[in-house]
Amino acid sequence: MGCLGMIGLNSEGIAIGINNLSSTNGKIGVTWPFIVRDVLEQSSLPSALNSITRANLAGAHNYLIMDSHSNGYNIEAMPDKAIITKLETDAVIHTNHCLISETKKLERERTEESIESSTNRYNKASEILAKDNISLEDLQELTREPSAICTISKPPSHVETCGAAIIEPARGKFWALWGLPSKNEFEEFDIPK
Question: Which of 70, 105, 126, 152 has its CA 20 to 30 A from that of 141?
């Protein structure tokens, strides 16, 4: 989680999480806080998906949305192109780089350090989530993984993990912490229907 408001769960069981992406075609348009808010005002997954796809997006983000019936979509969205993938049973992993060829073509150049950070986090999460029967504790430990995922500030960029969240829409459960996962404990929230 990078910023306040990039993730949420509403009382209808609609959940959203997003990652920043970089595009070559940013423009005046709807920014991500308005998308997240609109998605969380919806009562069904199709209407949540429509909140993203109908918007004239200003920038690039990956949106992961789910409902309380374990249905969901991953949307790699650039200002003028969105690729929608229906979620299946495999773990979904996304960091701060495009994974789909159509959106990769629209991705802006980034520093080697930035690309390496995103790729390392993606690869480490893929490795950890490759096993069967992932538990809540496994997910919490994933956020604390020190080699790639739980990033501590260092020169020259001083980028640091500032929080973590885990959502289980089917049970209306939301676990979150503020700050470095390696130095803080998750707090559990119940989101009643």
Answer: 70
**Is 139:166 a contact under the CB 8 Å cutoff?**
yes
SS3 for 52-75 is: HHCCCECCCEEEEEECCCCCEEEE
All domains of the chain, ordered by start, with CATH? 7-190 (3.60.60.10)
Q: How far apart are CA 2 and CA 89, in angstroms?
A: 26
| pTM confidence score | 0.93
pLDDT mean values, one per 10 residues, the chain (193 residues): 77 96 96 97 98 98 98 97 94 95 95 93 96 95 96 88 95 96 98 91
Rounded to 5°, the CA angle 180-94-81 comes to 130
- CA torsion sign for 133, 164, 108, 47 is positive
Amino acid letter for position 174: F
What is the spatial distance between Cα 61 and Cα 145, in angstroms, rounded to a whole number? 24
Q: What distances in angstroms separate CA 65 from CA 18, 19, 49, 144, one per listed residue? A: 9, 12, 8, 23
Q: What is the DSSP string of 123-182?
A: HHHHHHTTSSS--HHHHHHHHH-TTTTSPPP-TTT-----EEEEEEGGGTEEEEEES-GG
| Cα 83 to Cα 112: distance, rounded to the nearest angstrom | 25
